[in-house]
Amino acid sequence: xxxxxxxxxxxxxxxxxxxxxxxxxxxxxxxxxxxxxxxxxxxxxxxxxxxxxxxxxxxxxxxxxxxxxxxxxxxxxxxxxxxxxxxxxxxxxxxxxxxxxxxxxxxxxxxxxxxxxxxxxxxxxxxxxxxxxxxxxxxxxxxxxxxxxxxxxxxxxxxxxxxxxxxxxxxxxxxxxxxxxxxxxxxxxxxxxxxxxxxxxxxxxxxxxxxxxxxxxxxxxxxxxxxxxxxxxxxxxxxxxxxxxxxxxxxxxxxxxxxxxxxxxxxxxxxxxxxxxxxxxxxxxxxxxxxxxxxxxxxxxxxxxxxxxxxxxxxxxxxxxxxxxxxxxxxxxxxxxxxxxxxxxxxxxxxxxxxxxxxxxxxxxxxxxxxxxxxxxxxxxxxxxxxxxxxxxxxxxx
Length: 398
Prior knowledge:
Pathway: Antibiotic biosynthesis; vancomycin biosynthesis. By secondary structure, this protein is of the alpha+beta class. Helices cover 49% and strands 8% of the residues. It is built from 16 helices and ten strands. It has helices spanning 3-8, 26-33, 53-61, 87-91, 96-107, 112-136, 142-147, 149-159, 166-176, 184-207, 213-217, 223-254, 256-264, 269-279, 312-315, 350-367; strands at 11-12, 36-40, 46-50, 140-141, 287-290, 295-297, 300-302, 307-310, 372-373, 395-397. A five-stranded mixed beta sheet has the order 1-2-3-8-5. Strands 4-10-9 form a three-stranded antiparallel beta sheet. It has a two-stranded antiparallel sheet with strand order 6-7. The longest helix has 32 residues, at 223-254.
């Protein structure tokens, strides 16, 4: 693809990939010859796609720009335009001091120290789930048996909501993260049910506080803010990590020499998790930024009023930022990947996600050293129609 061809062509986004764990073939060409590409989103609206590491980091770190603005592109095919235009997104402050104040009130619950204290409980839950999976017998879907229920249990415990409602949370989360899977009526119905559920939980916590995050926040937030915070953490706290557990194990088993290297040297678990986050080619939609003024990106003048899609996954494969970027190096260090974003909007729960991923991998290596894929890696299927990337299932045997 030449620069002129890329400039004239409007690509359909998200870009298709040849296999569930493989990157879109266009990424390398876009990074080299068209770092700001025109794309058409599932909504039909147009945006600009940024794929180079330095440009994505710059866009995510620039405090002038936030996720939405007057006239910003809608991402989803339904009328409201997707999660960035949802009621949940509008209730919480998206920029400035209000956003920073909200982040500070949440962040104290997600410190590395607090997450380290959770590690024994996470490991014990992983053990129980693996016990259930092995009792079920091989082949088994590791996503359904371990990848999904573990992060849901963790975030439910943090918020003080019953883990037994996890199937409802999954349905509501999927609707909020819709790109093309649900129509507006289905999205509205899920949003209404989710809001009603969380409103009742917030009311119960105000009446009878407990040792959970929402009880702790109740004194400094209004009911709408508490409801939206609970919804946001439930969606982000289980969808992304649940999918990442499956993808991480899938990547490690797709070339089983990777798994065997970890068996031989479990001290590599921490760097292996970071490399899985960097190497993830199926990370989902990316993050959007709405330009409130004209700027220059990689020598290209981009006018104010443009919605920019930042592909962190494409940036994480940038050869200018990572030596041998197309190679999964389990010992890679340093590894300044952008999987959790950058700047003021970087992922609040990254310490929790790292703790869960590291702990699950440690337990799996110890409990199931003979673990392998039950189907060829090329037959793994991607999650479709949602803003998060993942595998529909991860069939394994041992």
